[in-house]
Amino acid sequence: MSRSHWILPASLALLLGACGEDRPQALGTLEWDRITLPAPAAEKLVRIDVREGQRVAAGTPLLQLEVARTRSQLDALQAQARQADEALAELQAGPRSEAIAQARASLNAAQAQAADARAYYARLQPLGRQRLVAASDVDRARAAAGNADAQVRAAQAALLELEHGTRSEQLAQGRSALAAAQAQAAAQAVTLQKLDVVAPRAGTVDSLPYRLGDQAPLGAPLAIMLVGDAPYARVYVPEPIRASVRVGQNARVYIDGREQALPGRVRMIRSDPSFTPYYALTGKDAARLSYLAEVTLTGADAAQLPAGLPVRVEFAAAAP
Question: Coiled-coil ranges per the record (predicted)?
Answer without folding.
Answer: 67-94
